[in-house]
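Final report, results section. Input specification for complex C-07:
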Amino acid sequence: MSDLVLVESPDEQDLRSGVRAMLAAECTGQSVLSFVSGFSDPFDEKLWRTVARGMGLAGLLVPEAQGGAGAQYRAAAVVAEELGRAVAPVPFLSSAVVATTALGSSASHELLGRLASGERTAALAVPYGLWSAPALLSAQDGAVTGAVRGVADALGADVLLVPADDGLYAVEGSAVRRTRIASLDETRPLCDVEFSAAPARLVAPLATVPCALRTAATMVAAEQVGLASWCLDTTVAYLKERYQFGRPVGSFQALKHRLADLWVELTQARAVVAYAVADLAAGGDDGLVAASLAKIVGSEVAVRAAEECVQMHGGIGFTWEHPAHLYLKRAKATSVAYGSPDRHRARLATLVDLPLEAS
Amino acid sequence: MASVMTEADLRARISAFLAEHDPAAAAGGGDADRLAFLRARFDAGLAWVHFPTGLGGLGAGRSLQPVADDAFAAAGAPDNRPGRIGIGLGMAAPTILVHGSSEQRERFLRPLWTGEEVWCQLFSEPGAGSDLAGLGTRARRDGDDWVLDGQKVWTSMAHVARWAILLARTDPDVPKHAGLSYFVLDMTAPGVEVRPLRQLTGEAEFNEVYLTGARIPDTQRLGDVGDGWKVAQTTLMNERVSIGGGALPREGGMIGVLAAAWRSDPGARTPGMHDTVMRLWVRAEAARLTAMRVRQQLAAGAPGPDGSAVKLSFATLNQQISAAELDLLGDEGLRRDSWAMGRPEEVDFTGRDAGYRYLRAKGNSIEGGTSEVLRNIIAERVLGLPAEPRVDTRVAWKDLPR
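Structure output:
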């Protein structure tokens, strides 16, 4: 535990700069606002092509044998953080992290190769907020039947991975009925999915699902750290240039202290997430504790940073035209995703032997 | 000042009025019947009973107003759709009453109260939010008129309003508080352009208002030239009372929504959420009883800084409660009804869906005085703590950094 590295390597720093520079050009606040206002595409396809094919980032967690980079959790966390910083509407988390992990490293499936290349995307067909064992759909004679509500990024997924009676099944997106929901976070839209005897093939054992959810909790926390850092940076910049009462708003101590506290909280979240990612990369001695910690701390800092960002921008922060609301909605939705802080605190209590009940 | 009007006197007058004007027929009839009833109620002094006789009131105590409202409601009488004319009732009317000339009171108050004329408020600007006194919309004297140029923002109801209360800069060469004057603007005048302003909920509840050479006759000035800031204080104190100061039963408002969600879904209950819900329930009840007490104090006098405290806790609680509701609902809370850009005329902070409530509540700590400004008001005007050193109060407005 003690020798886990919590600081970035030069390679990781280079990756971060590269992704950030690409996003600064191709994923601005204005472009995400246009995407969300259009309420049509399931994700930004052009941006996803750049992320997945152009930069080759969809295969970071795919084993090398299947054409990926092989379990590069640290790199994947850097990418998740930068995508969170840009509230990028791409299925990196759902396809390149969650679905890929759910397929499992042992699966010598051609699907993994196509996910790694970014040629196809997949979504794990579970509710976005799932944190424990999923409800299982019925599988019979190579077909799956049932319904799942509120699945993230399933609308544009080529393949859905469905936890069913005796394993994880792959179903073509074209074989299911998908109903789009007006989602709180339209940068990662949810949809309801119905399977009526949809042709399915068994691709992995169910045991991969908890592993995928644990990885999801950690990676979404990385995304939340990126989101919170955008909120802090943007608010600090605004408070330097916005004048009221003849002075920069940032010169008021009541606001400075809140931002200083936020910076402290963000610094801690960065360390907690770095620990969870390092633990994943090292094989996961402290996996469940680390993931729950990351999800709790990440969710709290993201929501607080986004709420402060809206409040400290005043009126303009409450408008549609300013991107702050994209961050607020992503923060609140990711707080629910893969288990709310409340759920993870309850799990953590058991893991660290701090039970609620009197014994 | 002791009021001569007792509750029994008031009830007798209302009974007499209702005997002469059939409330059910007015409510069931067309717009003309409804309006005739409301005008008669105004003329009988039963509109706002604490207003003076001849202006819709009887010079009675403020505390008697609920008696009148309840009696008319119980009789099935049509109301003036208060949700639609909140700015007129809550802000314009008290300001016109205190600072208006008798001609202005005669002209504006009756159609304001009956709802024939909707009012909006043109105060905030993109560059003047918390620092309202720093606003830059110019009013230049031209004969008997004032000519207006500038931009206002966060104007609810501007798209349907007939009149606006407006604060503008009449003298940029003096310190900012001294160079403001207060006007009533005809929203149908040339040079007034209203554009919808979409907010983070997806709707456009507010507007931006562009003033380009719009003219206001000097007879529509409220208070003296240069006294705009003083006049505006009356409006703002009343605004804070009207946001968050309404009478509610236990579990009225946002806490009722959270309590209902808790009761309806046992499966969502966790020890952590239970603790959160109970803490918020207690805070909400404390805030509700405080608002009740402030209203009783108010019945005896004008709104003071206590209204700021009520509005501050209302904003904080609405945000905490709506956030807790989303936490409780989990996945289901992430589903919205729509992102369409509606233009609501009446706003219900507890309406629509959990996502709406969470997002809309973010405005509660910004609109009508930010929570930061309200804390300063409490610290300085209630507690008497010294103000921070000011760099902006003695310099000519035109020389301020911005």
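Chain A has eleven helices and ten strands. The radius of gyration of chain A is 20 Å. This concludes the modelling results for the funded period.
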